[in-house]
Prior knowledge:
Layout lengths: L10 E6 L4 H16 L8 E6 L5 H15 L7 H9 L1 E5 L8 H7 L5 E6 L6 H10 L8 E4 L7 H12 L7 E3 L7 H12 L12 E9 L8 H26 L8 H13 L9 E6 L8 H5 L9 E6 L11 E6 L6 E8 L17 E7 L3 E9 L8 E9 H5 L9 H11 L8 H21 L4 E3 L7 H8 L11
Parallel strand pairs: 1-2, 1-4, 2-3, 4-5, 5-6, 7-10, 8-15
Antiparallel strand pairs: 7-11, 8-9, 9-10, 11-12, 12-13, 13-14
Helix pairs in contact: 1-2, 1-12, 6-13, 8-9, 8-13, 9-13
The chain binds NADP nicotinamide-adenine-dinucleotide phosphate (NAP).
Amino acid sequence: xxxxxxxxxxxxxxxxxxxxxxxxxxxxxxxxxxxxxxxxxxxxxxxxxxxxxxxxxxxxxxxxxxxxxxxxxxxxxxxxxxxxxxxxxxxxxxxxxxxxxxxxxxxxxxxxxxxxxxxxxxxxxxxxxxxxxxxxxxxxxxxxxxxxxxxxxxxxxxxxxxxxxxxxxxxxxxxxxxxxxxxxxxxxxxxxxxxxxxxxxxxxxxxxxxxxxxxxxxxxxxxxxxxxxxxxxxxxxxxxxxxxxxxxxxxxxxxxxxxxxxxxxxxxxxxxxxxxxxxxxxxxxxxxxxxxxxxxxxxxxxxxxxxxxxxxxxxxxxxxxxxxxxxxxxxxxxxxxxxxxxxxxxxxxxxxxxxxxxxxxxxxxxxxxxxxxxxxxxxxxxxxxxxxxxxxxxxxxxxxxxxxxxxxxxxxxxxxxxxxxxxxxxxxxxxxxxxxxxxxxxxxxxxxxxxxxxxxxxxxxxxxxxxxxxxxxxxxxxxxxxxx
Length: 484
Ligand code: NAP
């Protein structure tokens, strides 16, 4: 199968925070791959902006080092690399100062798309937005890309939306959630809305429950101070996991267009029930083979921030009434994996002599590692010996389906940046969506804070606290195994 690559128009992309971790690990390697694949035209210009001194050649050298460090050696072609570096320049700018903006303005071309990527701390979003307009660098056609976290609660998210709205129209603002750029996530929409097979079954009548797991093996050391102010609920559930839940639960949009899709996602968030205290499990990892305990990692023995959260929630509408969604995410768990599992109900009556609950169809959507989908179906175990049933997977791993081209599936960041250049906001969060997500999240957090809830300890390399297992056991269900 040959993937079709449609080149985008020439553009100028300014990366504020061009010397930072995200730019070096994700944005710049992603752009290199888009050039190597022929999607990014050689006429595009990339401009790094940050406070550090140094000119174009120093920045180019740092980009070369970043690509060598964060890309496999065989993915780098010297000729393409030189061409890529030629496209790059640098402007020294302090987001809070007024120097450098005139130079930046002189670099921007009027006849191409202008994109400004805010790959900096959220406290700099507003100063940059303001100065881009004040100094005439960005016009009404320009696009800005805003990184997460988008606020820490409803109040700060509203304030941020309001301050960006002073300078940019909503159609110019691209709030990035890189989970939405993953191939599988878009495939979830293709599978749901491009086939007749699933949609008639996609409701509480046929689906028993849904599990979303985002498990990490790493701890929080190195970013402990930051993480301890945030916790798993704000870091993962409010954005990435809720976005995944929306794509599963939303009604079919009338068309695949930014507002049609985002309107439907917004309705899901607004239909989320408040979560009961008994339906939430929070945990902190203890000391173990991976390193110190959470409390040691954050340097606060009294911290009550969760490095693990599991919850049961419901979407209150006709389609989903009575169907639980179980979400869990955590650090230092037994494997690094992100999976959505749609667990279908048992057949209403079994003509075979097997206990109920033994065989149910599961559509598993893996986001990482090995992006792909798998549908578990029940068949007869081959061979003599009567009618014995086994579950086998109908596997659609992208690596197998696409053969050699699978290695060319764009990473989420590069796909999303190309969407920005094309002016397609479908996979970006709209301001009202983000606010609705916080409006649901805030009372949940306020609830456990008011109760003085203390997270339960869990072992490193486990599936989280035992209470999380009980969350499903008491409903007669069990979590899927966390495995990579
Ligand atoms: P980082 O490594 O700390 O980089 C910050 C960048 O901002 C540096 O290039 C820094 O360069 C620049 N900067 C700092 N103060 C500045 C100022 N006053 N004016 C202009 N530039 C300034 O941070 P990061 O990890 O790349 O993260 C950037 C953003 O992406 C954050 O919002 C983060 O939450 C988000 N994010 C990051 C990741 C990730 O994997 N790293 C993932 C998701 C989201 P100078 O010091 O030279 O100015």
